[in-house]
Design the sequence.
């Protein structure tokens, strides 16, 4: 699978997982949703490493960067779930793609990655559309619920998904994903277990939803890492910015969420922007 194909597959898995975030919160609460989802992802990654015979090794020189990645990633996840607790998936999922701005900044100034003018134009169109989706009322500039928390996620994800690139050359795409997601999970689970809120075992229905979302997040994260290894952080992030093409229709079908016509138009502009990036 090529880097672009990996990024597109990550976009699909991530879009469905975004919609299921709302479902997992509504069934078991924010705390349980975060903890059990991350436990599921780590179990899948660890099982995959064992089945594939991937040696577990960690370069000690990466420990400082690893600590920062773990804390930033955990804080971003906590803010993401907090945003989804009150906001609409059909609005928050497209808006979360603003993290591309941060990735492009780091891609250019830290990693020296360049995009063509056409690709930059497509990325700008994607981001402008996400901005339109963020407001409940454009005339009064009243933000949708959960947007402020999501902006914290945008900054955190921008950093996290940019600096994944530091780990891939020394660890490989799979082991880098396992190590980084394990670090985030350790911070998230430790924090929420100390709060001791709603940490009972999930029932059968909740378990099935958590399992499906964990599988999707596992696939989306791993595919993203392989895409970064193949085509770089900048182009990967711009392609994955097309996640609203999946998350908005799935929020409509699964959650019954509706949007105003101008917001559906914004989603169509994301399609155009993504086409400019890929052509």
Sequence:
């Amino acid at each position: 699978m090529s880097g672009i194909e990996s990024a597109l597959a990550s976009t699909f898995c991530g879009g469905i997982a975004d919609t299921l975030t709302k479902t997992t919160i509504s069934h078991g609460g924010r705390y349980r949703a975060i903890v059990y989802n991350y436990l599921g992802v780590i179990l899948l990654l660890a099982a995959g490493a064992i089945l594939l015979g991937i040696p577990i090794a960690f370069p000690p020189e990466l420990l400082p960067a690893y600590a920062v990645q773990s804390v930033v990633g955990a804080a971003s996840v906590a803010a993401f779930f907090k945003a989804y607790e009150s906001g609409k998936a059909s609005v928050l999922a497209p808006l979360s793609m603003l993290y591309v701005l941060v990735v492009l900044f780091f891609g250019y100034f830290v990693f020296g990655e360049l995009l063509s003018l056409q690709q930059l134009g497509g990325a700008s169109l994607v981001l402008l559309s996400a901005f339109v989706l963020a407001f409940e009322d454009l005339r009064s500039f009243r933000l949708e619920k959960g947007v402020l928390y999501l902006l914290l996620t945008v900054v955190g994800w921008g950093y996290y998904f940019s600096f994944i690139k530091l780990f891939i050359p020394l660890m490989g795409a799979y082991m880098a994903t396992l190590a980084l997601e394990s670090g985030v999970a350790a911070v998230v689970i430790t924090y929420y277990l100390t709060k001791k809120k709603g940490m009972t075992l999930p029932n059968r229905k909740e378990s099935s939803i958590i399992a499906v979302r964990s599988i999707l997040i596992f696939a989306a994260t791993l595919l993203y890492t392989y895409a970064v290894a193949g085509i770089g952080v900048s182009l990967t992030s711009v392609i994955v910015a097309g996640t609203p093409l999946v998350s908005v229709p799935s929020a409509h079908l699964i959650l019954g969420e509706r949007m105003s016509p101008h917001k559906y138009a914004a989603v169509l502009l994301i399609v155009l922007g993504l086409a400019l990036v890929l052509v």
Summary: Strands lie at 135-137, 142-143. Residues 3-278 form one domain. The two ends are 18 Å apart (CA to CA). DSSP finds twelve helices and two strands in the chain.
